[in-house]
Write a structure and sequence with these properties.
Strand content: 15-25%
Largest sheet: 11 strands, mixed
Distance between the termini: 89 Å
Shape: flat
Number of helices: 39
Radius of gyration: 40 Å
Mean pLDDT: 84
Structural class: alpha/beta
C-alpha cells in the first residue's frame, strides 16, 4: 500500500445552518466529501479525516484510477469573483459568481464551482482578460437559464452567488492507496490451489486502519490537552520520542488523565514543542485487542494479520528509520484473545519477541487492578514494560484542570458554561462520584453537556438534568435546593405498603439518608434484609423505593437467587475466563445507580454469600478481567422467607409480634454466617396480612392492573365502589398466601370482566370505568371522557385601541341605559296590582328585584366614572390588578384526527403537564393593568345584561351546583377546592348562595343562572402527585331537576397539583390559585355566541 501526500484544492464557503454561521468545505474537482463546522480549524481536521475515510480500503485498478487522478489533480488556480448583471425571463439577476481559472498545455480552463462545477476551456493565445470575462458571463447566463427551466418556481438566483468570506485553498492530506491487478495482468498459476488452502496475504497498512485509530490524524484540534501535568508529560516525551523503543505501562485509576497525557505528549511532538522534528513523524496507533481477531475464521489467520501489522509498525515506509508506536487500553485482553480449543497462543505471545528485542514500542494504559492481573497471569510479559504510576491530582489542581478544560469546551462547542454549573458538577462528584477520581469523573459529564447544549448556555439546571439522565435519580433527591415536606415520604410509602409500618420506616430512613448525603461513600448506600411470609409485599417494597427515587421500576436490578444455587454461581456473577462479563458486575457497571434486589437470598450457594461480603462491606467487587465495579451508589435489598414456616406452626393467643421476630432472627442466624449477618445494615420484619389490610391492598393491585397495555392505551380511570371492592377483597383473602391469593382473585373477577367490556365498547377517548355490586354480581359501566370543543381564537372581549377608551366605555354605558329603559318600560306597562316591588308572597318584598335595580344603577355610575377618567387628563384612577391568564397549547381546528387524538392522550401524561407548566411560567404576560381593567368592566356589564334577560322575564331561578368525585373514597379535598372556587365567583357576581358543610353543593338564587353555568357542566381533572388523575364532575339542577337530560363527561379543565390550571376550552392557563376575576373570564369563554354579543 502506497502512502500518497496530496494538496487537495478545496472550496471554502460561509453558510448558515440552523441559524448559525458555519464553514463549508468540499473538493474543487470531486463531488465528495463535504464538511460543515463552526470552527475553521475543526472543519479542516474533519475534512482531512473524511477524505482519508473515502480512500480507506481503496485499491488502484481501472475502475478507481479516474477517481484517484482527480484527487491528485492540483494545478495553479486563480480565483476571482465575476460580477454579473442581466435580465432572465423578466427577473433581474445581479451578483458575484465564484470563478476559477488555470492553464494546462495551450488551453485556459474556466470553472464555476457554485454552478454544478461547470468547466469549459478556450485557447490561451487568442484571448485576453476581457474576453475571458465576457465568455464567462455568457456561460453563466446560459447556465442560469437552464437552471430556471429545470427548477421552475423553486429557482432562486441568490443561492448561486459567492459569499463574502468565500475562498479557495489547498489542504494537505495523506492517503493510502493499495494496488490490485489490472485486467491485463497475468494470473498466478497456482490460483486454484491457493483458494483451496485459504491462503491469504495481509497488508499491514490496510489491516491496522481496519482495527485501529491513527491518533496523529486528530492533530491539532481533536487531541485532548493536558494541563498542570508538565512533569508527567516531559517524562513521557523523553521515553517515547528520545530513547530506544522502551515499552511503557501507564497505570492509574480511570479518570486521572492517562490517555490525556499521552495525547498531550503527541501534540507537543507534532508541534515541535521540545525540538524541531526531522523526517517523517512517528505515528501513534490505538488498537482494541478484541478487534484483531474480528472476521478471522480460519486457524492461523489472525496470527498472519497481526504479523503484517507489526511489520508495518516497524517500517511504515521504505525509507523510514523509526517505526510507529502502539497504544493498548484493554491490556488484560492481550492475555486472553486468540486462545481456542486448538490453540493456546494469545496476542501477548505474538508481541513478546518484538518487545523483548525492542523492535516494537507498545504503550499500555491500565488501572491498578488490570496491572495486577497482568502480573499474576503473565509476569514475563508485564516485566517488558517500564512502569509509570499516575496518581489522582489534589482537589485544587483538579479544579484548575476542570476550569481550563471548560475554556477549551466552550471554544470548541460555542457554548457558555457558567461557574454555577461547575459548582453543581463538583457537588455531584463530591456526593455521588467520590470513588471516581478527579478530574475525569467531572469531565465525562461536562463533555456530554457541552456537546448536548452546543451553541447554547449551560447552567446548574442543565447539569442537574444531565445527571438525572445519567443516574436515573430524580432531581428532588440530589438537588439540595429542593425541600421534601415533613411526613411526605412516610405518607407515600404508607399508601403503598399497607400494614407494614416497619418497612415504611426503613424505606423512609433510606431516602432521608440519601437526601441528607450522610451515607458512607465507601460502602453501599444501605443494605436491607426483608424477612416475612410470602405475599406480604417484600418485593413490592423494593419496587416502591425504585419508583420513588427514580420515577420508574426499570432501575430495579433484580436477581432471583433460585438461579444461583450451584457451586459455579459465584463465577457467573463476576465472570470467568470463558465468559468474562459477569451477570452482576456487568449490570452494575452499566447501571451504577439503582436498587439491587436479591430475591430469596437464603437459596443462593454459600459461595455467593461469601462473594457478597466484599460488596456489603467495601462497596466494591472485582470481575474476572480485574475491573473494579463500584456499588457505593446502590441500595442492596435482600428478601427471605426464613422462619416463616416456624412462625406458622406456633400456637397461642394475643400479640405475637416480638415472639415471631425472635423466631425469624434465630432462623437467619442459623442459616447465614455471622460475618454476613453483621454486614447487613438493617433487618426489616414484614407482618402477616390481616383482614383489615386487605381492602387497601386490593386497591393497590387494581391500580397495578390499570398499568396493563389494554388499559393504558385507552387511558382508563377505574372507579370501583366500596361494596364491589369488599366483595372482591374478602373472596380473595388468604392469611397464609397473602397478597398473591388476592391478586389471583382480582384476575378472575375483574380482568375478564374488564376485557369483555373494553372490547365491546372500544373508544379512542379516555374512559371512566365504573364497577358496582348489584344483586351479588359485579356490574360494569363505561363512560367516555370527551374533551370540550375548543373555541375560536377571537373569543376575548373586544378591547379598545390606543385612545379609544372613551368610545369603549360609551358603548358599555349605552347598553346599560338600554337595560334601564327596558326596566322602566316593564314597570310602566304593568297594572297596579302587579307592582314588581310589592310581593312574591303574602306581605314580603321582592328583594331580588330591588337588589338588581340597585346593581344596575351602581354599574352605570361606575362606567360613567371610568368614561370621565379617560376624558379628563387630571383624573386619577387606580388600575386593576393584571390578570395572570396566559395562552397554552390547545387543539386547533386544522389539526388532523390523528394529531387531535395524540394531543388528548398527552393531556393524561405527566410530561405534557410539565410542558404546560413550563410554558405558562416562561410565557409573556397577556394582560397588563389597563387591559385587565377594560376586561373586568366589560365582563361586569356583560354578566349584568345576561342577568337582565331573566329579570325582564321576572324569572327568579333557584339552582344547585353539584360537585362529586368520580372515584369512590377519593377527592374530598379537590371537591371542596372546586366548590369554593365557584362560591367566590358567585360572591363577585353578587348572587345570593349557600354552601353545605361538606362543600359538595351550592344553592344559589338569581336571574339567568342556568344560562351562566350551563356550559360548566362536565369533568374537571385534578392531578395529584404519585396518583392517577382524579375526575370531579359538576352538574346543575334547577328546582331540584337536572338541567341536562344526560350526564356530561366532557373534560373542561385540568388542575396540575399546586402549579397550574388549564382551561381546555379557551386554551388559557393560570396559576392554580386563580382569582374570581380571572375565573370569570373563563366562564365568559364558555358562554354561547348569543350571550357574548349581548353588549
Amino acid at each position: 500500500m502506497a502512502n500518497i501526500s496530496i494538496q487537495l484544492p478545496t472550496l471554502i464557503q460561509d453558510v448558515v445552518v440552523d441559524g448559525m454561521p458555519q464553514y463549508y468545505l468540499r473538493p474543487l474537482f470531486a463531488p465528495y466529501p463535504f464538511v460543515t463546522h463552526r470552527r475553521y480549524n475543526l472543519a479542516i481536521t474533519q475534512y482531512q479525516k473524511e477524505v482519508k475515510l473515502s480512500f480507506k480500503g481503496l485499491s488502484l485498478n481501472r475502475d478507481t484510477l479516474d477517481r484517484v487522478l482527480w484527487y491528485l489533480f492540483s494545478p495553479t488556480i486563480h480565483y476571482q469573483k465575476l460580477p454579473v448583471a442581466f435580465t432572465l425571463s423578466g427577473e433581474f439577476i445581479q451578483g458575484d459568481i465564484s470563478m476559477i481559472r488555470f492553464n494546462l498545455k495551450n488551453y485556459t480552463f474556466i470553472g464555476f464551482p457554485a454552478l454544478n462545477n461547470y468547466l469549459f476551456m478556450i485557447k490561451t493565445e487568442k484571448r485576453g482578460a476581457e474576453d475571458y470575462q465576457k465568455e464567462a458571463t455568457d456561460r453563466v447566463k446560459k447556465l442560469m437559464k437552464l437552471f430556471k427551466q429545470d427548477l421552475g418556481k423553486e429557482f432562486d438566483s441568490s443561492q448561486y452567488f459567492a459569499g463574502k468570506k468565500e475562498f479557495i485553498t489547498k489542504i494537505p492530506v495523506n492517503i493510502r492507496v493499495g494496488q490490485s491487478p489490472f485486467k491485463f495482468d497475468r494470473r498466478q498459476d497456482d490460483w486454484f490451489f491457493s483458494r483451496l488452502s485459504h491462503h491469504e496475504e495481509f497488508d499491514g497498512a490496510t489491516e491496522i486502519e481496519k482495527i485501529g485509530h491513527d491518533l496523529n490524524a486528530r492533530y491539532p484540534s481533536e487531541l485532548s490537552r493536558a494541563y498542570f501535568q508538565e512533569e508527567l508529560v516531559d517524562h513521557l516525551y523523553t521515553i517515547l520520542f528520545r530513547k530506544t523503543n522502551t515499552s511503557l505501562a501507564i497505570v492509574g485509576p480511570p479518570g486521572v488523565g492517562k490517555s490525556t497525557a499521552i495525547q498531550e505528549t503527541l501534540y507537543r511532538y507534532l508541534s515541535d514543542h521540545y525540538e524541531t522534528r526531522k523526517g517523517r513523524a512517528q505515528r501513534l496507533w490505538h488498537i482494541d485487542p478484541n478487534r484483531v481477531i474480528s472476521g478471522m475464521m480460519i486457524v492461523g489467520m489472525w496470527q498472519k494479520r497481526l504479523e503484517a501489522i507489526i511489520q508495518y509498525l516497524q517500517k511504515p515506509e521504505e525509507r523510514s528509520k523509526k517505526g510507529d508506536k502502539l497504544i493498548v487500553t484493554n491490556p488484560v485482553a492481550l492475555l486472553r484473545i486468540g486462545k481456542s480449543a486448538n490453540n493456546n497462543m494469545t496476542l501477548a505471545d505474538v508481541f513478546k519477541p518484538y518487545l523483548e528485542k525492542r523492535e516494537l514500542q507498545m504503550i499500555i494504559l491500565a488501572t491498578p487492578e488490570e496491572w495486577k492481573v497482568l502480573q499474576e497471569q503473565d509476569r514475563r510479559f508485564s516485566d517488558l514494560f517500564q512502569l509509570i504510576r499516575v496518581q489522582e491530582p489534589d482537589s485544587l489542581t483538579a479544579t484548575k484542570i476542570i476550569l481550563q478544560q471548560r475554556k477549551h469546551l466552550e471554544f470548541e462547542n460555542g457554548v457558555s458554561i457558567t461557574i454555577k454549573a461547575i459548582h453543581q458538577l463538583l457537588d455531584i462528584q463530591r456526593n455521588y462520584l467520590k470513588n471516581k477520581p478527579l478530574p475525569g469523573s467531572v469531565m465525562d459529564l461536562l463533555k456530554q453537556i457541552a456537546t448536548k447544549y452546543r451553541y447554547g448556555q449551560v447552567d446548574a439546571q442543565e447539569v442537574r438534568e444531565e445527571f438525572n439522565a445519567y443516574s436515573g435519580l430524580k432531581e428532588q433527591i440530589f438537588d439540595t435546593g429542593t425541600v421534601i415536606e415533613d411526613n411526605e415520604i412516610d405518607q407515600i410509602f404508607a399508601r403503598e405498603l399497607v400494614g407494614q409500618p416497619k418497612a415504611v420506616k426503613a424505606l423512609s430512613d433510606v431516602v432521608h439518608l440519601l437526601k441528607a448525603k450522610l451515607n458512607n461513600s465507601n460502602e453501599p448506600i444501605c443494605s436491607l434484609l426483608f424477612v416475612g411470609p410470602t405475599g406480604v409485599g417484600k418485593t413490592h417494597a423494593a419496587k416502591v423505593l425504585a419508583q420513588y427515587l427514580t420515577g420508574s421500576e426499570q432501575h430495579l436490578i433484580r436477581f432471583d437467587m433460585n438461579e444461583f444455587i450451584d457451586e459455579g454461581a459465584a463465577q457467573r456473577l463476576i465472570g470467568d475466563y470463558s465468559n468474562p462479563e459477569g451477570q452482576l458486575t456487568s449490570e452494575i457497571r452499566y447501571r451504577p445507580f439503582g436498587i439491587l434486589l436479591l430475591d430469596e437470598i437464603e437459596k443462593a450457594h454459600p459461595k455467593v454469600h461469601d462473594l457478597l461480603l466484599q460488596v456489603l462491606d467495601a462497596g466494591r467487587l472485582t470481575d474476572s478481567l480485574g475491573r473494579t465495579v463500584d456499588f457505593s451508589n446502590i441500595i442492596i435489598i435482600m428478601t427471605s422467607n426464613l422462619g416463616a414456616e416456624e412462625v406458622n406452626r406456633q400456637l397461642g393467643f394475643g400479640q405475637k409480634g416480638a415472639q415471631d421476630e425472635s423466631i425469624i432472627l434465630r432462623s437467619i442466624e442459623a442459616h447465614f454466617r455471622p460475618e454476613f449477618v453483621n454486614r447487613i445494615k438493617k433487618i426489616v420484619f414484614f407482618n402477616p396480612l390481616q383482614p383489615d389490610h386487605i381492602l387497601g391492598i386490593a386497591q393497590l393491585q387494581i391500580r397495578e392492573l390499570l398499568q396493563r397495555d389494554g388499559f393504558v392505551r385507552r387511558t382508563t380511570i377505574l372507579n370501583i365502589s366500596q361494596s364491589a371492592l369488599e366483595y372482591v377483597a374478602h373472596r380473595g383473602f388468604h392469611a397464609r398466601m397473602g397478597g398473591r391469593a388476592l391478586k389471583r382473585q382480582i384476575e378472575r373477577d375483574l380482568t375478564s370482566l374488564s376485557a369483555e367490556q373494553l372490547i365491546s365498547s372500544y373508544s379512542s377517548n379516555p374512559i371512566l370505568f365504573d364497577i358496582d355490586l348489584k344483586d351479588g354480581h359485579l356490574h360494569p359501566r363505561i363512560n367516555n371522557l370527551e374533551f370540550v370543543q375548543s373555541i375560536d381564537d377571537d373569543w376575548l372581549p373586544p378591547l379598545p385601541k390606543e385612545g379609544g377608551g372613551v368610545r369603549f366605555y360609551s358603548n358599555l354605558l349605552h347598553s346599560i341605559e338600554k337595560l334601564e329603559q327596558d326596566i322602566n318600560d316593564l314597570e310602566k306597562y304593568l297594572p297596579p296590582s302587579q307592582d314588581p316591588m310589592i310581593v312574591i308572597g303574602e306581605g314580603q318584598l321582592d328583594w331580588q328585584y330591588y337588589g338588581f335595580k340597585t346593581k344596575v344603577s351602581e354599574t352605570k355610575e361606575l362606567i360613567q366614572n371610568m368614561m370621565l377618567g379617560f376624558s379628563d387628563k387630571y383624573f386619577i384612577e387606580s388600575p386593576a390588578n393584571p390578570l395572570r391568564l396566559k395562552p397554552a397549547v390547545k387543539p386547533r381546528k386544522d389539526w388532523s384526527k390523528g394529531v387531535r387524538e395524540n394531543f388528548k392522550d398527552r393531556l393524561f401524561q405527566k410530561e405534557a403537564l410539565q410542558e404546560i407548566s413550563e410554558a405558562y411560567q416562561y410565557a409573556t404576560a397577556q394582560f397588563d393593568n389597563l387591559k385587565s381593567e377594560f376586561i373586568n368592566n366589560y365582563l361586569k356589564v356583560t354578566f349584568l345584561l345576561i342577568c337582565g334577560r331573566g329579570f325582564l322575564r321576572r324569572e327568579t331561578e333557584r339552582v344547585t351546583l353539584h360537585f362529586e368525585s368520580c372515584i369512590t373514597g377519593l377527592g374530598e379535598a379537590e371537591t371542596a377546592t372546586l366548590c369554593r372556587l365557584y362560591a367566590r365567583l358567585l360572591s363577585l357576581l353578587d348572587i345570593h348562595y349557600e354552601m353545605n358543610e361538606d362543600k359538595t353543593k351550592i344553592h344559589a338564587e338569581g336571574y339567568s343562572l342556568v344560562d351562566l353555568f350551563r356550559a360548566e357542566e362536565g369533568i374537571q381533572l385534578f392531578y395529584v402527585a404519585h396518583q392517577n388523575p382524579l375526575p370531579i364532575r359538576m352538574w346543575v339542577e334547577k328546582d331540584q331537576r337536572p338541567i341536562s337530560s344526560t350526564a356530561s363527561y366532557k373534560v373542561i379543565r385540568i388542575f396540575d397539583g399546586s402549579n397550574t390550571m388549564t382551561d381546555l376550552r379557551s386554551g388559557f392557563s393560570n396559576a392554580v390559585n386563580i382569582t374570581p376575576e380571572e375565573f370569570k373570564l373563563l366562564i365568559y369563554a364558555g358562554l354561547s355566541l348569543e350571550l357574548k354579543e349581548i353588549v
